[in-house]
Amino acid sequence: MRLRAEYAVGPDHRFLANLDMMHVMERALRRADVPYRLSEGFNPHIRISMGTVLPVGIWGKQEFFDLELAAMDLDTFMKRMNRVLPPGIEVKACRSLGTGAPALMNSINAAEYAFRVGRSPAEVEPLLAEIMRLEEIIVPSRGKKKDVNKDLRPGLFALKVEDQGDGAVIRALVSVNEPLNIRFDEMLDLLTGFGISRDTILDFWREGHFIKRGERLLSPLLTP
Asked: Is this prediction's pTM over 0.90?
């Protein structure tokens, strides 16, 4: 059986690295007595595949992992996991995947990042409009190829702002994984470079992942 789970990582865990999160999930699977599958070879490990890495310093509302396990009731899986996971990390939903379903990392191609700012939407909207009018946004790559520049514009799908009462929330829908991966810190630099100073950004998180097909945004949990 192959399972895909959606989970949330609260603000208190924003400084967990990807490997740390992997260890949290593996310990929870053992403590919850989940009948997980192990890889073969000299050093077998749990067959779990985490989704796109959650950058250190931000928290996530809609993260995903795939897991291979023996047949198990999905509600029982969720209850057992949430009983042993640390407060602030919660499995919110899961589903069984059919045979031949694409790997999680091969499916996700978009993500939404959110930035809560201490400025009004009226102040922020013109700055976002100015960014979206650009034909190219050339930045130094902060990934593996640090000696090259890359153009963020083709992967910047949308920028919008919402009223938050005492401020605003900026939402950025961007391309992730191949062929163009826009990193969270690149978006943070872009916003600060266009007049949204770092000291006015009060919080930031990843709102979710998507499978983008044309103009449609599909949930990785619901899409085979």
From this structure: yes
